[in-house]
From TrEMBL:
<feature type="transmembrane region" description="Helical">
    <location>
        <begin position="89"/>
        <end position="111"/>
    </location>
</feature>
<keyword id="KW-0472">Membrane</keyword>
<keyword id="KW-0813">Transport</keyword>
<feature type="transmembrane region" description="Helical">
    <location>
        <begin position="12"/>
        <end position="31"/>
    </location>
</feature>
<feature type="transmembrane region" description="Helical">
    <location>
        <begin position="188"/>
        <end position="211"/>
    </location>
</feature>
<dbReference type="Pfam" id="PF01554">
    <property type="entry name" value="MatE"/>
</dbReference>
<keyword id="KW-0812">Transmembrane</keyword>
<feature type="transmembrane region" description="Helical">
    <location>
        <begin position="162"/>
        <end position="182"/>
    </location>
</feature>
<keyword id="KW-1133">Transmembrane helix</keyword>
<protein>
    <recommendedName>
        <fullName>Multidrug export protein MepA</fullName>
    </recommendedName>
</protein>
<feature type="transmembrane region" description="Helical">
    <location>
        <begin position="51"/>
        <end position="77"/>
    </location>
</feature>
<keyword id="KW-0046">Antibiotic resistance</keyword>
<keyword id="KW-1003">Cell membrane</keyword>
<dbReference type="InterPro" id="IPR051327">
    <property type="entry name" value="MATE_MepA_subfamily"/>
</dbReference>
<dbReference type="InterPro" id="IPR045070">
    <property type="entry name" value="MATE_MepA-like"/>
</dbReference>
<dbReference type="InterPro" id="IPR048279">
    <property type="entry name" value="MdtK-like"/>
</dbReference>
<feature type="transmembrane region" description="Helical">
    <location>
        <begin position="352"/>
        <end position="374"/>
    </location>
</feature>
Length: 441
């Protein structure tokens, strides 16, 4: 495919379908984990799974930090026709992510229980959570590298392979989930083995790209390693924070629910958190479809083509956001019952909390896409601002202050307010960036 001359609409959909396909498959097996654990093991097991999410998200986010940051620079240099610089960016990013993966593997296996305790897990929830997360400690290296490899495979014009990789991993995960949790009765350990097996298969399939005829990436002796590593980290930081946001928000949410609410609220939040992860993955799929095409054309100075691409992408996430939000607002009990067997207590929480929380999905897609779009235009400051405000600053402040001021129930309003405020900021930054781009035409 020719990223500079082919129809923008055709390029968008050629990247969108594999990216969305990957996101759908990944989301299906994320949901399968939650459903199998919630239905096959119980409410406490789903709450325990929620306790492990920050740890797992951190591992996956490190791969995104180096993968997105490195692949954007790779695509920009490819757009300018400088293949040597592109390959040096890949090599620098590879060295960085391998170093990080080894360090994480060693530290997480040494301080396994201490790390889980920091997430607030204790008593029965600790035992269930540790039985699950310890397998991620063993498989830390593929867990870190899988998103790194996927990012470069997409940027090297092979999005279909990235989709095949996720599909293969998803099939392994779903089959193992069902077999190991139900007939084998392996509980949380079985669900964890299914998950890390799926991740490992996905990583191995992605690696086949580097042995294929489509591969244009080469190992090249890096220069100015510290400077280029800083550029990679700067470019990937907002993507890292976006992916890690679920972990940060879930961590704070869990602590606040433990302080102000009952186990029923904690169980229902397990459902909401998994829905948020699912919808976030789909929005990220749109962002990943945009990024290689936008970065390549940015490197070549094709601002008109970028404007067309932006129109298609934002229209897509707005439509998706409406559908996602209405599903929980109109059918809260139906959505919750897919994950857990509702009791009187959890049913009451579901009917009141879920419609409020799901309002957030109207705006979430705009905010997630904006981080990827700004990254592709080397607007790291804009991308970082959106990520930090959405995922750490505004959300954390509201999660802490709302229940203090208005009681435990107010916690459910924190995320919808955050997404709405950040969407306004994203819109302002988009207008400002568009004016800058037009002034350069």
């Amino acid at each position: 495919m020719d990223l500079l001359n082919d129809s923008v609409k055709n390029l968008y959909f050629r990247y969108l379908f594999p990216s969305m396909g990957s996101a759908v498959v990944a989301s299906v097996y994320l949901m399968t984990d939650a459903v199998v654990i919630g239905k096959g093991i119980g409410d406490n097991a789903l709450a325990a799974l929620n306790m492990t999410t920050p740890i797992i998200s951190f591992m996956l986010s490190i791969g995104i930090l180096f993968g997105i940051g490195g692949s954007v620079l790779f695509s920009v240099h490819k757009g300018t026709g400088d293949d040597e610089k592109a390959n040096k960016c890949f090599t620098t990013a590879l060295l960085g992510v391998l170093t990080a993966a080894i360090i994480i593997c060693v530290l997480f296996n040494i301080f396994d229980k201490q790390i889980l305790s920091l997430m607030g897990a204790k008593d029965e929830l600790f035992d269930l959570a540790f039985d699950y997360v310890r397998f991620y400690y063993y498989f830390a290296i593929p867990s870190v590298l899988v998103n790194f490899c996927s990012a470069f495979v997409r940027s090297d014009k092979d999005p279909n392979r990235a989709m095949i990789a996720v599909t293969a991993g998803g099939i392994v995960n779903v089959v193992f989930d069902i077999v190991l949790v139900y007939p084998a009765q392996m509980g949380m350990a079985g669900a964890a083995i299914a998950s890390v097996s799926g991740i490992t298969v996905q990583w191995l399939v992605c690696l086949t790209h580097f042995l294929s005829k489509k591969n244009t990436i080469r190992i090249s002796k890096p220069i100015k390693v510290l400077k280029n590593t800083f550029q990679i980290l700067k470019g990937g930081l907002s993507g890292f924070i976006t992916e890690l946001s679920n972990a940060i928000i879930i961590f704070v949410f869990n602590l606040q629910l433990l302080n102000y609410c009952s186990n029923a609220e904690l169980a229902v939040y397990g459902v909401l958190a998994n829905c948020a992860i699912l919808f976030n993955a789909l929005f990220v799929g749109v962002g990943q479809a945009v990024q290689p095409v936008s970065a390549f054309n940015f490197g070549a100075g094709q601002n008109g083509r970028i404007a067309k691409l932006r129109k298609y992408a934002y229209s897509t996430v707005l439509i998706m956001g409406v559908v996602f939000a209405l599903s929980g607002i109109l059918f809260p009990e139906l959505v919750a019952s897919c994950f857990i067997d509702l009791t009187d207590a959890t049913r009451e929480v579901t009917k009141t909390a879920m419609p409020i929380y799901f309002i957030a999905f109207f705006a979430m897609g705009v905010n997630v896409l904006s981080t990827y779009y700004f990254q592709s235009l080397m607007k790291g400051g804009y991308s970082l601002a959106v990520s930090m405000l959405r995922n750490i600053i505004i959300s954390s402040v509201l999660l802490i202050t709302l229940p203090m001021l208005f009681g435990g129930f107010a916690i459910w309003f924190a995320i919808p307010i955050t997404e709405a405020v950040v969407a306004v900021i994203s819109f302002i930054l988009l207008i400002k960036n568009n004016k800058q781009m037009k002034s350069k035409v």
